[in-house]
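Example record

One chain of 50 residues, shown exactly as stored in the release files.
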Amino acid sequence: MNGSYVDPLKVEIPPSHPVKEELRKEYEKQRKFVMEELNKMNVPKIKNPV
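Predicted structure tokens for this chain:
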């Protein structure tokens, strides 16, 4: 942090709150849209440099 590398798997973050039931339908709608857009992306496969 503060310009230093931090392993994101070791950082302790507070848990998030669940999506409120009254917002769930809109959340799922937005999630579906975003996932469809992401799945349209053509990501080139590269060899592992290691």
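Notes: The mean pLDDT is 91.
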